[in-house]
Amino acid sequence: MTNNTSKAAVNVRGVTRKAWLGFALGTVMLWGVWGALTGFSAERGFPETLVYCVWALTMIPPALIVLWRAGWSLDRSPKAIAYGLAIGLLGAGGQMILFYTLTVGPAYLVFPVISLSPLITIALSYVILRERTSRLGVLGIILALIALPLFDFTLSGPSPTGGLGWFALALLIMVCWGLQAYLMRAANAVMQAQSIFFYMMLSGLLLIPVALMMTDFSVPIPSGWDGPGMAASIQILNAVGALFLVYAFREGKAIVVAPLTNAGAPLATALIALVIVGAVPGPLKIVALILATFAAIFLSIAPEAPDAGKPHNVGADE
Q: Where are the domains of the chain?
């Protein structure tokens, strides 16, 4: 009887340890589909700044749903509010900076720099949270970090103009998004997942006026389905994916979750685009796809490694 109980406990703990994987893969799939569809709004003339406004509004339903499921339990301590707003403003603020960066710098160079944001998350999680992973996990992390810039980098393109200001801005965005992911993991020591997402939603809404001020209303803007309707149906995928990401960071290590989701999402996008529209990737993207595939596999199957110190998850089962 004791042996059976012990085995059952091990099985339960094993399932708990891998719970993060389901949430992470959910993020990968949702963001993968979102990535394949998100360009449709711009193709119909709907400004990216207004797409941001629609995205911020699509964060409301999932935020309210998880709050309702948690009995409307919202962490209101000063530390929880500070964590939540910092996470939200780093993400949304980075997006605001990106809007401007793409007007002064080439996208084919800006996005490869930004894609290395997991490097910031991994470094902070390793040093501060003292997270560790197995050798297989380390190999997956390395492959993911190599693959990420290759998804957007091209060997040819227009020469950058206006100096290297765009590079400094791209680095700033990389730091913002890398720090956001780290804080998303660290915040679980002081607050519940639904509270993290609620404050992320609130932060996104707070920056809507900034996005509106950056919008050029002198040009025709589509309304109805071609405008906010299509944008909302696409951006809700991003919003729910972000919710899954919060839970992935709650259940798993940032050192593994960050590279898996960041490499897995563009991999899913590329495969969906290939199937739906027959978009054949270039040589560098093919290399990125291969590396990201192996990275995702290694990170998914890597055995758990004990941490030097692990934050306690608020509300987690003891």
A: 22-155+163-301
